[in-house]
Design brief:
Distance between the termini of chain A: 44 Å
CATH architecture of the largest domain in chain A: 3-Layer(aba) Sandwich
CATH topology of the largest domain in chain A: Pyruvate-ferredoxin Oxidoreductase, domain 3
Radius of gyration of chain B: 20 Å
Structural class of chain A: alpha/beta
CATH superfamily of the largest domain in chain A: Pyruvate-ferredoxin oxidoreductase, PFOR, domain III
Strand order of the largest sheet of chain A: 9-8-10-11-13-12-19
Largest sheet of chain B: 8 strands, mixed
CATH topology of chain B: Rossmann fold
Structural class of chain B: alpha/beta
CATH superfamily of chain B: Thiamin diphosphate (ThDP)-binding fold, Pyr/PP domains
Oligomer: heterodimer
Strand content of chain A: 15-25%
Number of helices of chain A: 20
Helix content of chain A: 25-40%
Bound molecules: thiamine diphosphate, iron/sulfur cluster, magnesium ion
Helix content of chain B: 25-40%
Strand order of the largest sheet of chain B: 2-1-3-4-8-7-10-9
CATH class of the largest domain in chain A: Alpha Beta
Number of helices of chain B: 11
Shape of chain B: globular
Largest sheet of chain A: 7 strands, mixed
Number of domains of chain A: 4
Distance between the termini of chain B: 44 Å
Amino acid sequence: MKIEAIKRAEAIDVSILIGGKAGDGVLFTGNILARLLKRYGWWAVTYRDFPSNIRGEGTQYVIRASLEPIENCREGVDIFLAFDCEAIKKHAPRLNKGALLLCDGADAAILPTSVSSEVVAIAFPLRQPAKEKFGKELYKNMMAIGALSYLLGLEVNPLEDIVRELFFEKKGEAVVETNLKAVYLGYELGQKLIPKNKRWFLPRFTDNRRMILMGDEAVALGALAAGCRFFAAYPICPASEIWQWLAPRIKDFGGVVVQVEDELAALNMAIGAAYAGARAMTATSGPGASLMMEAFSLAGMIETPVVIAHVQRVGPSTGLPTKTQQGDLLQWIFGAHGEFPRIVLAPGSIEECFTFTVSAFNLAEKLQGPVVILLDLDLGQNLRTTHFPLAQDWIIDRGKLLSADEVAKNKEYKRYLITEDGISPRTFPGISGGIHLVESVEHGENGLRSEDPEIRKKMMEKRMRKLLSIAPNLIPPIIFGPPEAEIAVIGVGSTKGPILEALKFLREEGIQAKFFQVRTLWPFPTREVSEFLQGTRQLVIVENNYTGQLLTLLQSQVCFSPNLKVEGLRKYLPDNFTPEEIYRGLKQLCQ
Amino acid sequence: MPIKSDLAKRNKDLFSRQPPTWCPGCGLYGILEALKRAAVSLELEPAEIVVVTGIGCHGRFPNYFLSYGFHGLHGRVVPVASGIKMVNPKLKVIGISGDGDAYSIGLNHLLHAARRNSNILIIVPNNRVFALTQGQASPTSPRGFVSISTPFGTVETPLDGLKLALGAGATFIARGFSGEVDHLVSLFKAGLSHSGFALIDVLSPCITYNKINTYDWYKKRIEILPSTEEVANDKEQAWRWLNREDRFVLGILYMEVRDSFEQLILSDSKRAIAHLELHPEKEKVFRLMEKFI
Ligand SMILES: Cc1ncc(C[n+]2csc(CCOP(=O)(O)OP(=O)(O)O)c2C)c(N)n1
Ligand code: SF4
Ligand SMILES: [Mg+2]
């Protein structure tokens, strides 16, 4: 039995789906399970699909665990825990052969015909016993975790630790005890109801050198590590987690988080703080980004470093606030009036969320201008397992910053001094001898407004030159796969995981493909893409939007050879690609 | 801290950058003069002051007033000023925001800064017109105001920013008049010394685009409160003054002592965030990462 189970474990990858309605505690249950699997030494990732209201509509949460590093969930599901029958109707087609379905509150008889006969379905009462034993339906979630632990063959002690960490500090020992009782009750019910041959026995590995967290949290960690000490924002899904994580912790670093009246205030306030000398940041999503455009341009003109994290959700307009999309790829590149140097970084993993955020602050101060970290909901809000620590080392580079003594030595300080690299040494208010004016109107070296065409020309060139000067410091792209591969794929952000897994599927069939991960979206890595495409016949751009924004960007920045067949693989359904979808898409496009 | 300048040189020229080029007779001259005198009298240094302005004729203020200056966007004076103050509470942060800037496009910020009690001084040169854009009606234009944007006269009721600020929780509101510079100096000194949000609305004639609210027109309609030294924390009285229809009551209309936003929100309001030495603080960050294990 045990040996067979381990064999099965080696073959997996196990995917667990929890389905129910918003308000059922699906997220809570799934999060604990994901953390538990991580503590078990597995690589766990989650996929959340939530409605934007707090209660009532269908929600699903997938947890995938694997012995190999993974970045994303898959289509198929091995274990399905349904809190209601509607969830079953919706997700039954995803069940793998031999899958197990546990359904609360209903007979297994309600299984729709779309469920394969190879799926074992059992009624698994949760709400009712929870109510009877503990007086509250809520405890069904802990019971579910107990039942799933039995089903997966997990020992209970790591779970006990997690329950304690979750409840002890805030709620005390009594609450811990009740929750543990619920876990055990679920476990016992599992023993009674789950067929023995359907059990899994996931082996336990001791690996505590891994963490599990969301991209938003990694961005927040990166901000603290980079010395961000001022954060102003207006609540918006899916960026609020950055701020919520920072809010209770930034004080320990001497910093402050402010909830402001709107996004206009958020960015303008961050710019004010940055001008006065702090490393400052804001975070938002599409609607807030639209409101920030004017101030974005201001930061470019007055040459103030500021960092903006944008976690994309589905648009246009309010769109689907809790669903993922890459529909704002061009917003910060071509949005905002006028021309000014700007940088847009696009992390594709949790580690990159951290390291790119640190880089964003360094780049902003070197450039003396705005830098955007562009994520999407899939990367921002789903949990992923990654190595501890997120980086071994990092630096803080504040660019051309004058000390008070250096300022004092200046005979006449010029904020916008014209230099070879375009970057003018900076100082902050409060320092004698450094008095200057930052001016949103076109200005001369001393910051005073000017409409002289010669000055305009020089200043424009000075500002734009900065981007060239810091080019060597930009984050380079990464190329995966053999250079001679026939199929070339380009993608950005959260499609990285599914693209790499799709390439693995292809490799298993003997098809070679290579992948160019765009990591600095702007300035665009034109030279690197051109080199990557040399000798390639077949290019597929994978992106989560309708119009092919990444393709549009490529077409404007790279000269394609006439022999190159260029295709777009796009998805504008409100979820990220699965690796299976990309695999199928690539096979179809590259026949 | 900035080095104190030579006492002998402590006259208002200490704060002069360039000669102003506003229309001769513009109310902004009185405001500029008064602010320089207030700064001299409070023994402030140019390097410890930041003047933030919006877009409008008032926006040119930092071109003429010598200190650190930030000429930003139309309507965003208040958030910029708050951001500066929060990271360096030692600075005197003064926002100069027109009636269009503060009460139209930027009104939201004004009310929230009042609510927070951000420790900044906002001066509104209220010329009751959009001057820089050549004379459209503003939210404070008198009813019936004929302008290029309102050829048949405005039909809206003008708003009073001081009433809004008082309602939103401002701890210092005052009204002045560009034609009464000595009085303005006393208001500015009080506003600069106030710990918390201070809004000073200055009736300020635009001789080019507002032919109604002229110096003479105001002179007949102002009433200056006797003392600006002691002001009761009396909201009822403030409302009565603000509601006077026959007169513009000039002076500090309301003042209250309440902890400022910075005092409440900063872990150490004496130490400037802007002056923190930044290090990777690896050990601390690693400890936070460990929580995700
Ligand atoms: C977002 C934006 N909208 C419009 C303008 C055009 N604009 C410049 S100044 C101004 C009105 C200024 O009025 P006020 O704030 O009263 O300043 P004043 O010129 O009277 O001092 C407007 C509408 C702008 N600069 N920015
Ligand atoms: S247009 Fe009006 S506000 Fe502007 S400078 Fe002239 S008088 Fe002053
Ligand atoms: Mg005006």
